Amino acid sequence: MKNFKKVFPILQQYTYLNTAASGLLPTPVMEWRQEHDLDFLVGGSMLKEKQGKILSGVREKVGKLFGCLPERVALVPNFSYGFNTLVEGLEGSEKVLLLEQDYPSVNWPFTSRGFDVRYVSITEKVEDDIEAAFAKAQPHIFAFSLVQWLNGIKLDQEFLKSLKSKYPDTLFIADGTQYMGTEVFDFDNSAIDALGASTYKWMNAGYGNAFFLFKKQVAEKVGAQTTGFNALQGKYKPQEGSFLGRFEPGHQDTLNYGSLGEAIDLINQIELETIQSKIATLATSAKEAFAERGLIDSAITNRKNHSSIFNIKGDEALVQKLRTEDIIVIARGEGVRVSFHYFNTEDDLNRLLSFL
């Protein structure tokens, strides 16, 4: 697949460097959504009879793509909903380690419930600081984003695995919203116990869909209480008191979750390995170009591995200036955030640089 402008028509008009804020809707997903609603229009409740098959299929696609058995995949409307369900199932007395200025939906659920919270600053040596904080605080829970939303700093997966081996009883909970869909990832071989991700960004699945992946032992530590009719039914949650069902109360939205399934089909068609390679190549070029021009912080330039999200020097005026040139970015934190996906090119980067 070479002509991404047919898959993402907005690229015919704009240089889109804002996936970290909102992914694009692919044509195949849009077409599937139209067919789904047409089936609902002419079939009414007969569409509902297909609900179990649709949802089970999406659960299986998520699990296969990210290395997690489908009976440990929960489909939720967004990361925040699933994460709050998870946190609400904790005792509330646990010591929690968080990252300063991490995504609010990671930190707020703990601070709003009065957990004993400690923080680590996000610097170029964030892994060293996390390890030091573990040694000092001995946290019961470590909650974090795999990729930071403000500046794109990406935690090292091998470091996390090493840390988990030293602290096996600590519950590692990750937000993968700015990560999932950018690299090959094997959940069951990772350090993470529970991982959630909204999929409207890098997976290009549209809004209203997300997922959580769980290691088997999480159900022993989290007493989630959410429930509702249909929560304990389905191919992968047949038993009463199903842990998975606690994250899926009531009837699920086949339009939005089905969109996730179609988005995964597109990812598989392109191949995640190819996506990873394209993103990494462009991210390396961008990092070098931004560093040469003094546009990014030393905390980014001095790190070996970085995501494709960058916070460059600028303000809202720059955002609006670029918008007049049909370059889409966003103001975040103290600068302007730009982000590159697999459908972006070196020409997109050069076009941005020409206006900077």
From TrEMBL:
This is Aminotransferase class V-fold PLP-dependent enzyme. One of its GO terms (molecular function) is transaminase activity. The lineage of its organism: Bacteria, Pseudomonadati, Bacteroidota, Flavobacteriia, Flavobacteriales. Keywords: Aminotransferase, Pyridoxal phosphate, Transferase. It comes from Dokdonia sinensis. It comes from the Bacteria. Transmembrane segments: none annotated. SUPFAM superfamilies: PLP-dependent transferases. Residues 16-352 form the Aminotransferase class V domain.
